[in-house]
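Re: adenosine-5'-triphosphate structure - here you go.
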Amino acid sequence: MINVENITKQYALSKKQRKELQINSTSVAAVNNVSFICKPGRVFSLLGPNGAGKTSLLRMVSTILKPSSGDIKVDGVSVIDNPQEVRRKIGFLTGSTNLYDRLTPGEIVKYFADLHGMERSLFNERKENLFEQLNINEFSKKRIGQLSTGMKQKVSIARSMIHDPSVVIFDEPTSGLDVITANSIIELIRQCKKDGKTVIFSSHIMSEVDLLCDDLAIIAKGNLIYNDTMDAYRKQSEGKSLIEAFINIVNQNN
Ligand SMILES: Nc1ncnc2c1ncn2[C@@H]1O[C@H](COP(=O)(O)OP(=O)(O)OP(=O)(O)O)[C@@H](O)[C@H]1O
């Protein structure tokens, strides 16, 4: 379960940034007083135009970024009071993989399992399942530096899921991937849902949202402008495509 409670994020702007953006203000508001709930066993999708604040929000849920105000509880644990405990509960995946080029996929997941203090037998079982599910075995002994973007993305997923987190956060997980690799990630998200995990993901790909998501929130310019179930969203689309409905909601709130 994720409870986002009145979250605001303001980035301080340097002199150089103010000059580049041609503004006098010393900070920019990326997220404004946003609240929503993501439930276990359901997939929650975060949508919004470029620069809406999606990545900032997901980074605050995953404790990489500190909120300016408000709080987020992950399975009841506050990201402000106990970020370390929150980190144990979550798996976070972004488009930029940032893996060490000189290690193999096997070595990388072992390294992260050790950071989480996983027992060897549990680690072996989990690794076997993930590597099979994501088809990593065929390149598990190659160094990361020799792998393609999609292969790296799969390793990155295995790394963020190795400790069996109850909450998984995907920031544009399929961006730039071929349909086969993207599909294996979609299957993994489905499996997470079946396993009763809380899943939140951001995407610009409406067909993916349509396939996966149970609940959705739309943010624009840092504000929450829509939050309901996918069924309610489809109903209110009144025969329009999901993309048209999205554009209408964003334009109405501009
Ligand atoms: N480190 C930073 N310093 C200053 N402003 C930032 C910083 N990071 C993000 N922003 C600003 O905060 C706002 C929200 O950015 P964010 O990356 O969260 O949006 P997004 O919805 O993820 O966008 P996209 O879909 O393009 O990835 C934007 O106006 C962006 O310029």
